[in-house]
Amino acid sequence: MFHYFDNAATTQVRPEAAQAAVEAMTGEWGNPSSVYAFGSRAAGLVKGWRADVAGALGCLPEEVFFTSCGTESDNWAIRAAVELNRRKGKHIVTTAIEHAAVLESCKELERQGYEVTYLAPDHQGRISLQQLEEALRPDTVLVTMMLVNNELGTVLPVKEASRSIKRSGCPALLHCDAVQGFLKVPFTPKELGVDLLSISGHKIHAPKGIGALYIKKGLKVSPLIRGGGQESGLRSGTEATGQIAALAAAARLGKETMDADLAHMAALREETARRLTEQVPGLKILAPEGAPHILAVTMPGYKSEVVVRYLSDRGVYLSSGSACHKGKPSHVFAALKLPKPELDGALRISFSADTDGEDVDALVEALSQAQKELFTSLS
User: Fold this and answer.
1) Which of 184, 187, 282, 339 is deepest in the core (most CB within 10 A)?
2) Candidates 59, 106, 176, 324; catalytic one
């Protein structure tokens, strides 16, 4: 028995998604590009699964392109946007708290001669719209801004950014990494005003190895992978039908229960924040407002990696930041300019619809005990 609080890293695959994958791999397992009936049936299924994902996302099926993960979607979107606008300028605007998939892509473009402006958050991880407006220039070709920060849970002003870009008159396309926002906060790409938007399956109870990129209808992006012409010629390669089926099932069912799931997670987040501040003296909430599934806290004076291991030994699993950091200091927490004791003690607690009151009881008890037992060695 364990208590899992690292849903921002990955979620448990829901049974319906796993079953959908099994059926796709053992039943209608034909190649969707084959012209005979067995392949045509598979192609028809892929078409239906694309419609399911589009329905959950709130866009047209022809605007959804399957990828292997959110990282691939981010990389493709950024590269496609700057290539599309290559004659209009070489300036990019992003934030200092983006996922590594975005930041590393921007750094590579800097090495190629692009100029990147990194918007800094305030001490609670919020990005100022005024900062963005001041950063926009006539040669700004891309703004890439996540919807929900993966370590703090803060919701960034993507919709407002779209309006600011239009008012400024600059040619920038708007990309949004919505990996932590999809089915966690209500939105559609049209409501946000984005041109490109990334999602990932394993954050919504689908398997790892599947994601998607929303490309606004009419946007003529270049192919990511050339070959047999799959994904409307933009991402060639035989479709991963098992993973696509699972993503479609998770997205469809997640959309159906979204309102109840968000209310459940919001209540758990509020209860957890209240109980931890009451029962773990000195613990601070880093970002009080945000998406319902992420709660960032700090235990000043304690090393987060030691606390994470202590809790793990007791069957309580959480993290000290994004799993992509692999133990390295979090650039997101560092961007908040926290005092060193608070930075060292930062922890991320993340919920899912499966998290319950017993899990919260175990978490509160484990952190309370950690404070008592680890205090002497870490004070």
Assistant:
1) 184
2) 324
**pTM beyond cutoff 0.85:** yes
* 324 labelled catalytic: yes
Look at the block and give the residue holding tokens 């984005």: 194
> Which architecture characterizes domain 3-11+258-378 according to CATH?
Alpha-Beta Complex (3.90)
In 3D space, the residue among 81, 211, 65, 187 whose CA is nearest the CA of residue 144 turns out to be 81
CATH 3.90.1150.10-classified regions of the chain: 3-11+258-378
- In this structure, what token pair is assigned to residue 214? 């929303």
pLDDT per position as a tens digit, 152-173? 999 999 999 999 999 999 999 9
- The domain over range 15-256 is classified in CATH as 3.40.640.10: yes
For 290-330, the pLDDT digits (tens) are 999 999 999 999 999 999 999 999 999 999 865 555 556 68
Q: What is the strand order of the sheet 140-144 is part of?
A: 64-67, 211-215, 196-200, 173-177, 140-144, 91-95, 115-119
Q: Are 202 and 6 in contact (CB under 8 A)?
A: no
Q: Tell me the residue length of the chain.
A: 379
Tell me if residue 42 falls in helix, strand or coil: helix
Cα 362 from Cα 379, distance rounded (Å): 24
